[in-house]
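@channel anyone free to eyeball this complex?
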Amino acid sequence: MTIDETAHIVHDSPMEITTETITTEEYLNLFVTEKFSMTDIAPAETRHVVMLVYPGMFALDMVGPLAVLQGLVNTKVHQLWKSADSINCTGLTIVPTGTFDNLPEKIEVLLIPGGSKGTLEAMRDPDIVAFVQTAATRAKYVTSVCTGSLLLGVAGLLEGKRATTHWSAMDVLPKFGATPVAARYVEDGNVMTAAGVSAGIDFALALATKMVGEPYARGLQLDIEYDPAPPFNAGSPAGAGAAIADGMARLYAPLMAEMSQVAMHVD
Amino acid sequence: MTIDETAHIVHDSPMEITTETITTEEYLNLFVTEKFSMTDIAPAETRHVVMLVYPGMFALDMVGPLAVLQGLVNTKVHQLWKSADSINCTGLTIVPTGTFDNLPEKIEVLLIPGGSKGTLEAMRDPDIVAFVQTAATRAKYVTSVCTGSLLLGVAGLLEGKRATTHWSAMDVLPKFGATPVAARYVEDGNVMTAAGVSAGIDFALALATKMVGEPYARGLQLDIEYDPAPPFNAGSPAGAGAAIADGMARLYAPLMAEMSQVAMHVD
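replying in thread with the prediction:
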């Protein structure tokens, strides 16, 4: 095998393609543990994952966790919005699976993605905030990615909780009574919040571990070949360096001021 | 600040929110280097990024690179399909921005996402293969994520090239005359191929570096807070362990056999 000098070598022993096959049940049996039986892994009753979708949300906030959670057996992922009309996200138009009226009675995971101006508008929209509140009462896990946590905040769900968000929005969290934690994801009670955008993938794998155990979560990680090798160590303010981090913080400052303003008007 | 013991601590000095602002031009000026002028960073002429979209594609293959490349100034990202109808991807319905007839004359990046059965069907579809061939002649960079490289293969674009794909599909590549390279992404001439699903993010940052330089790419990385911290080291066959990797390879064996069959019929 020729090794490309310019390529980022991650693993050097690719699988030989096997001609042997395996049934789905045999495959899932690999993930049975002392704590998680086949009934947990492949439940008879459909698990419902509900993702709020809205104009201007950042698509990867939702699609990262989707890539992980869609791999769970008998799990229906809903993307719900006010209407059945298509939604313009950042560079992507998506069609909701249903409207707020299609909220299942019993929800395994509620997930709120973030964004910038679209999220600010959502924070100011009483219908959306009411939907988040109602959905949260039905959900086993109440979760967010990126500035989606600020929507949880407006809905009153972060009061007294440790939580995280996009690095640029950390100072907004205390305005909702939350304690900001600089972490990839934070769990406090049944609330799990993830850091910015791409953190949704790490968070979803951690969540899957809670739902179906570590072996299955490892399988989900292998399936999306999540063996990250970013070309730079620039995913945090410290790693990116002061010039870029300060510049971006200043670029987002007006948005963060407006998001903080919304927090001031929460009951 | 309270530190959550259960959280995955990644960076411990979150930015304080600044009240100072910066204009977009001032911000972009941070990224000017000896090699990349403001004209390169914010070109007067719109850059066109064309992503093929198709039923059954895996959404994250496309949305990962989208999250990076949508941050480029004056860059239009197209998602093109045969018709303007919405498309069911894996757990997500998207609306194309246009049809194959809307292919720009000059393309900066052509990107082909992958998938499983949907990709197999696309490989067997002469209209899609012809579109990939035509688009490639107009593109500065011809790229793929995951099994999208097999579509490049069917289109005859990997002949004599080093390339990569999802780990489970590595043995299909030689059937298109390509030399498989176990890497996160591989560059050979103007062809860049990325490994499975999530590798599209790493690849897109590397591609952005070529397009607008390292400082800007670092800014894009910070914006999506791509500071990965997967809960497990299970993103490669070796990391996931033999039981899971063998199991998954067997699960995919019938699909890979069919994909190899398509390769046998390529002229």
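from a first look: Confidence is low (pLDDT under 50) at residues 1-15 of chain B.
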